[in-house]
Amino acid sequence: MAGTPNEVITPQAIKTAQQTCTAAKTTYADATNAVLLLTGGTNGSIIYKLTSLAKGTTGSAGRLLVFSSLNGTTMVLIGTANFADYTQSVSSGPLPADIGWSETSPRRVAATEQIWVATSIAATAGVAVDCQYEDL
Fold first, then answer.
1. How far apart are CA 48 and CA 57, in angstroms?
2. What span, in angstroms and rounded, lies between the C-alpha atoms of 3 and 44?
3. I need a surface site. Which of 26, 39, 66, 77 has the fewest CB within 10 A?
4. Which residues, 6 or more positions from 80, have their beta carbon under 8 angstroms from its beta carbon?
5. Measured between alpha carbons, how far is residue 16 from residues 46, 126, 135 in Å?
6. What is the 3-state secondary structure (H, E, C) of 16-69?
7. For residues 58 and 132, which has the higher predicted lDDT (pLDDT)?
8. What is the pLDDT of residues 19-46, one digit of tens each?
9. Residue 123: partners with Cβ closer than 8 Å, 6 or more residues away
10. In the predicted model, is pLDDT for residue 60 greater than 90?
């Protein structure tokens, strides 16, 4: 149910969203090679954490790219995080890339605003993106 002016809206429940990015995104103004991660709830949402992790050998270092869109077509770059080159092995795991949003510095998402994610490199095994958020 949508809120009304001066009404207190409290978070409803912790949620998670996950996606895997495989194609390199080379344009920043459109949805090409980006994947939809989440859509803001009826009263908006709050993102507390957004990280990525290589699912296999990446072949080179890259960047996690985070976009905002109100219409699913026009994108606005709102965050990036570097991740290191990773070669899959049984003795070491990939290091996560963290956008930096937290409980004390969250990213607010407007009602129906869309959050899209992509990577700057093509990764055959993919780069997994994990998000912790709450709908208001």
1. 28
2. 10
3. 26
4. 63, 64, 65, 66, 99
5. 11, 19, 11
6. EEEEEECCECCCCCCCCCCEEEEECCCCCEEEEEEEEEECCCCCCCEEEEEEEE
7. 132
8. 999 999 999 989 999 999 999 999 899 9
9. 21, 22, 54, 55, 56, 58, 59, 62
10. no
Is residue 39 exposed (0-12), middle (13-18) or buried (19+ Cβ within 10 Å)? middle
- Which residue type occupies 106? P
Task: Give whole-number Cα distances, 13 to 46, 73, 108, 112, in Å.
Answer: 11, 29, 15, 18
pLDDT in tens, 73-114: 889 999 999 988 888 888 888 889 999 999 999 999 999 999
**Residue 97 · residue 64 · CB < 8 Å:** yes
pLDDT at residue 76, rounded to an integer: 93
Would you state the pLDDT for residue 11?
65
Q: Which two tokens stand for residue 59?
A: 């072949």
d(CA 27, CA 47): 24
Tell me which amino acid residue 117 is: V
